[in-house]
Amino acid sequence: MSLIRQHGSAPKAEIAQKTGLSAQAVTVIINSLEAESLLIRKDPQRGKVGQPTIPFALNPDGAFGIGLKVGRRSFDLTLIDLVGNIRATLHENCAYPTVQSLLTFLEKGISVLKMSLSDELAKRILGVGVATPYEIWNWTEEAGAPKAVLNEWKSFDFKEKINQIVHLPVYVCNDDTAACSAELSFGNPARFSDFLYIFIGTFIGGGVVINETLFTGKKGNAGAIGSLPRPMLNSEGQLTSQQLIMQSSLYILEKMLKGDGYNTDILWSSKEYWGDLGPVLDKWIDQVADGLAYAALCSLAIFDFEAIVIDGAIPINVREKIVLATKLKLSQADHRGINRCEVQSGSIGAKAQSVGCANLPLLINFSQDHASLSHH
Q: Does residue 371 belong to any structural domain of this protein?
């Protein structure tokens, strides 16, 4: 199924050739997947000789996943089908996330999402993927939330509490790892097999893909580039360091804009258009690109990535400027002993975290990524 997803569709002979399975084994597997409505036959393709070949594709109605994204400023519920189409979505803004507001949102939200499917199709929902910031309680100052409220998350058991409401398997994952999984499954048009994925949200974060597979690391936190220490001089001129989060995140742009008297609601209410934010935005873009070029060089030195893929909860024109500025800064950097890599825009956009967490139940059931995801 991963192979068919990658190619859009494929006939049995091609699947046998690419997997190294016998034609008979492939036929048995495809027949059973077809019987379970996970695959559909496409129109026969006529070649020059012999019988026309029948390509098989994933059946969008074959399975569904629900994603719950706990953001630092909002909650999102998303229902996707087997090929990544969003079938329904719900969004709620909040000043900061509390346990109680999440449970209330979830209770009403799940039943609303299910209304978009027939009773028969609703039985094909495989689970709920939850994407949440890593150690959300550690970011009280940046999130602008009371410590006591964020501390509730410390003892909150997502699996247990959500399971009581939805009665479906629950899978929990870092929010940017989820976004990376969406790019891997439903984006990545250049078919990179190894890339560092960067997502610019309230805080910046990332994910890692190695050998066409999501690499989450032993504790599920691979690609946490927001915590990368950046060398800098303090006010006394001594060498110290600052995490990348403090330089290349959206909340920094919010601070900069507030300092210049702008209304910053637009940053959170619209991911398509921010209007004219003047030189403040240009300064932030330059600062973000500096941080991303640094993160790219560090990661290239450790793992020889083919590409750096940049996405975020930001308008496309802003993302393109960041990609161009990062490319330029990387091209001017000292590359001795390090291979150069592609720098590209992600293809899923602001909804990557939401689609990614809804994709978790599908990945765990139907892909080679299940081993690295299911134990977190």
A: no
Model pLDDT, residue 141: 56
What DSSP string runs through 3-23? HHHHHS-EEHHHHHHHHT--H
Mind giving me the DSSP string for 74-137?
A: EEEEEEEETT--EEEEEEEE-SS--HHHHHHHHHHHHHHHHTTS-HHHHTTEEEEEEEE-TTGG
In a domain, 358, yes or no: no
- Same-domain pairing of 49 and 94: no
- Amino acid identity of residue 149, one-letter, is V
Task: Map tokens 């403090």 to a residue.
Answer: 246
- What is residue 115's DSSP assignment? T
- 39 and 57 Cβ atoms separated by less than 8 Å: yes
> Across the chain, where does the E strand assignment appear?
10-11, 39-41, 55-58, 64-70, 74-81, 86-93, 125-132, 170-174, 195-200, 204-210, 213-215, 229-233, 239-243, 307-312, 342-345
List the CATH number of the domain containing 283.
3.30.420.40
Q: Which residues pair with 265 in a beta bridge?
A: none
Phi, psi (deg, nearest 5) at residue 274: -105, -5
Nearest-angstrom CA–CA distance, 83 and 1: 11
Asked if residue 307 and residue 200 are part of one domain, the reply reads yes
Q: Per-residue pLDDT tens for 164-216?
A: 888 889 988 888 989 999 999 899 999 999 999 999 998 899 999 999 888 98
Q: Model-level pTM greater than 0.70?
A: yes
Provide the token pair at 60: 């969008």
The answer to whether 297 and 227 have CB atoms below 8 angstroms apart is no
At 7 the pLDDT is 82
For the stretch 4-14, pLDDT in tens is 888 888 999 89
Counting every residue, how long is the chain?
Answer: 376
**Cα diameter, the chain:** 79
